[in-house]
Amino acid sequence: MSSFRIRPRFKHLVNEKQDALEQRILSAMKIECPPCVPNATKGYINLRIPVDEQHFWSPQLTMTFETTDEGTVVRGLYGPNPTVWAIFFFGYVAVGILGSIAAMWGFARWNLGMSAEILWAVPVFAAIALGLYIASQFGQKLGAEQMFRLHHFYEDVVHDKISVD
Q1: What pLDDT, in 10s, does the model give residues 15-40?
Q2: Which of 38, 57, 135, 149 is found 20 to 30 A from 26 (Cα to Cα)?
Q3: Which pTM value belongs to this model?
Q4: Residues whose CB is less than 8 angstroms from the CB of residue 148 and which lie 6 or more positions away in sequence, other chains included
Q5: Which residues contact residue 134 at a Cβ distance below 8 angstroms, ignoring those fewer than 6 apart?
């Protein structure tokens, strides 16, 4: 799994019916010490790290199932807790909007021949966006071991090696 992926994902074709595959994944969870906790509905399984092992950066694996003529296509997406994802999303949105406003205001004042000192805020907002990206990469590294646990659990259940994009 590459360190520069924002949300690693995979697509895997399994030669098995969707219901049987979902049941096999869920029944693998019933071992004495499961590596993850499922949240499932038909066509969708979300695997999380057990609550007593979770931290702010703990990942989750979201899998969707689609029936095709060849079998079942499983699409997996690794990501942080939705709260963490929302914090970073709104951080990027806020920085983008404030940076755009500062740039428009500054260039408008500069075009009118007025003082455009607000343009100094644009690189500050760019630095904040870069800081958010670096923080997300750092957090992804903190959750990497747990992400590998989720990935290896899925590989063990389907008895196949899966490459992550």
Answers
A1: 999 999 999 988 888 775 677 888 88
A2: 57
A3: 0.81
A4: 1
A5: none
